[in-house]
Design a protein that fits this description.
Elements lengths: L6 H29 L4 H27 L1 E3 L6 H14 L5 E5 L6 E4 L7 E5 H4 L4 H17 L1 H8 L1 H13 L5 H38 L4 H16 L3 H5 L15 H8 L12 H10 L5 H7 L7 H9 L3
Helix pairs in contact: 1-2, 1-7, 1-8, 2-6, 3-5, 5-8, 5-9, 7-8, 9-11, 9-14, 12-14
Length: 317
């Protein structure tokens, strides 16, 4: 298994997660101080209780939202064989394998622990990618399980939600202290969302790197990502809205696909609809041009800018 340095990515995720939980803890402590009841321990337990509830329920929510059904080896031998090999390379238990009856091409991983991991592909991706591209995609998803970052995302995504509920519970209050708490909670909600998005983008870089480590080819993952952008852009906005709430689990930001197409044209030199090893190595030595607008939009996205992401994959060729 190819070993690549990951300490910078790990440090970013740890610091961002610590900051996010620090925000919610501070808000809960402020409520206790202003309302005159409870104490630091009470509010710490309350916050962890809400997060733990989301941790327990999130797999079932994902399954229902994504219309997932799990498949046996007899039903999907090709998928099972690739997942089994990649999981062994990653040193984790083989995840459950599922297919989501969704036409939008993509894949995702979720679960509570490494031993509870589930890897799913949508019906749309099976008709879009070749075998090596699909293998690289599955390597990306298995890397999410290996890194346990899907658990981190489940936990941290609850924090802005808590802040949002606190804001709404105080918005009509005539008490000045409660109003101050509500304003602080609203600010914390927006800051929390930005931090969650940062964590989400970081984990995608981390999983791309993980795919290469456990056997995925960099140019095949780049080609798969390229195809997924075009595949997502082919759907109308109403279809994409159906998966808006879970797009952080996907390989790319399906909502931003149409905005990325023009920029991606600088990658596919021979216009054959794929990214070859030669084209990815060209990116390595020539770089890519990412506009200011795209850099700003990236801050509000669940995923890294696709050009920058493919540029980073080129470092592994």
């Amino acid at each position: 298994m190819r070993k690549l340095s990951t300490w910078k990515l790990k440090l970013r995720m740890f610091l961002a997660t610590a900051l996010l939980f620090g925000i919610i803890y501070a808000i809960l402590i402020a409520i206790g101080a202003l309302m005159g009841f409870g104490g630091p321990l009470f509010y710490a337990l309350l916050g962890f209780g809400i997060v733990f509830l989301q941790y327990l329920l999130s797999p079932k929510i994902v399954e229902l939202t994504m219309n997932v059904h799990y498949v046996s080896e007899a039903e999907a031998p090709r998928l099972h064989a690739m997942v089994d090999e990649l999981a062994r390379n990653a040193g984790i238990p083989k995840p459950r394998v599922g297919i989501a009856e969704i036409a939008v091409p993509n894949a995702f991983a979720f679960g509570r622990t490494k031993s509870d991991g589930r890897v799913c592909v949508t019906r749309g991706i099976l008709n879009l990618l070749d075998e090596e591209e699909l293998r690289a995609v599955l390597g990306h998803e298995i890397s999410h399980i290996r890194h346990s970052d899907m658990i981190v995302m489940t936990l941290v995504s609850a924090v802005p939600l808590i802040c949002y509920y606190i804001f709404w519970s105080t918005i009509y209050s005539r008490d000045d202290d409660a109003t101050l708490v509500g304003i602080a909670a609203l600010i914390a909600y927006f800051l929390g969302q930005l931090i969650v998005l940062f964590i989400s983008r970081t984990r995608e870089y981390y999983a791309d790197q993980g795919s290469v480590e456990i056997g995925g080819q960099p140019h095949k993952l780049a080609s798969a990502l390229y195809k997924l952008v075009y595949g997502s852009a082919a759907f109308d906005r109403d279809d994409l809205k159906q998966v808006e709430g879970v797009k952080a689990f996907f390989l790319n930001d399906v909502s931003d696909a149409r905005n990325e197409i023009n920029d991606l044209s600088q990658l596919d030199i021979d216009m054959d609809g794929t990214i070859s090893m030669a084209e990815l190595q060209r990116v390595k030595y020539s770089g890519v041009k990412v506009g200011v607008g795209a850099r700003i939009l990236e801050l509000l996205s669940t995923h890294p800018n696709m050009l920058r992401r493919i540029e980073r994959l080129s470092e592994f060729t």
